[in-house]
Amino acid sequence: MASLQASNFLLSSSSSSSKQIHAAISIPKLPSVRFSAPKLRQPTIQSEELNRKDRPINTIPMENNVHRTPLVQQTSSVSMATFQLYAVLEAIADRVEMHKNIGEQRENWNTLLLNSINMITLTAATMAGVAAATGVGAGVSVMGLNLASSVMFSAATGMLVLMNKIQPSQLVEEQRNATRLFKQLQTQIKTLLAVGSPCQDDVNDAMEKVLALDKAYPLPLLGVMLDKFPASLEPAVWWPRKQSPNSNKALTNNNGWTRELEMEMREVVEVIKRKDSEDYERLGNKALNMNKVLATSGPLLTGIAALGSAFMVSSNSPWAATVAAVAGALASAVNTFEHGGQVGMVFEMYRNNAGFFKLMQESIESTLDECDVEKRENGELFEMKVALQLGRSLSELRDVAKKSSYSRIEGSSMDEFASKLF
């Protein structure tokens, strides 16, 4: 029994000693603390920049809120001439809008001035007729009618002189043609950007065409307004007089040109000169002379009516009142025929058509004068453009050239015109 207690004591003491030793040796675990270091993204950014350098840049960087980056950066894929042509396109779009708005404004001028002058003239003529019908015996009762008609005739004369000077209907036609030609130039530049590789010569040519259009169809009235009553019709010129040669690449060895095609183009030029240009210049001169007569007759008749009204005030003569009434009615009719019929617009239309045929002559002749066929525009494409501008098919254009050649050889006149559009 004693031995068992001794052994239990030894075991308990040994276990306690072992626990003490273990407690002395074991190290308590510290709490784990995780430190999150920021990820370095610089290597990925550099790799992305290196990858970007390998591929072309097709977009323009946007503005950020901190730093402003340039809107135009010349890269290997987009040339500076392309950016410049887009700038020219923006200017052309602005001019199209300006000519359109100003054309609408001047069309309102024509309508409002025509109606106002006719109302004033007819009212004054009515007053003069009433005064003439009342007679001399009325005395002071017709004095107010006489004075009113005289003032109104004088006002109508001044307004009519101004209206005949600026010719609003002709101004409207100028703005219409300018809008159409600017849109045509805009389409040509867009086609060049889409299918070609523009260069600095293309930029200079586009700017010269824009400035030539600005000079041919000015927007302001004072100082640079076109002469509405020239001595004779001069075709409108809206293109640079010194045109740069075309830079189209050759599609074949002879660039689409043959001896027969050159002869065909020369015959087309002769037909345009002898028939189309001559006919439109003749009609334009007739419209110009008619407009001159009407522009002079209107203010002259209203002036006579104003003088008749003035004699009515001083002498109270029924004959003066009759002259005033008749002259006022005739002035209203002349004014309606001139501005309601838009004779000035008709003259401007003939002037622009004559300019169109002159442009065709110069473009064909300048192309044929180029000895090196590689520097010309492709012959087949050029023939198709000429046919479309004249409103004909290729076979019809060739038939016109053959008829012109036969008529010149036989010495007979040719009745057919080159153009079927106008």
From TrEMBL:
InterPro entries: Chloroplast_duf. It comes from the Eukaryota. This is Probable F-box protein At4g22030. The gene is LOC121218701.
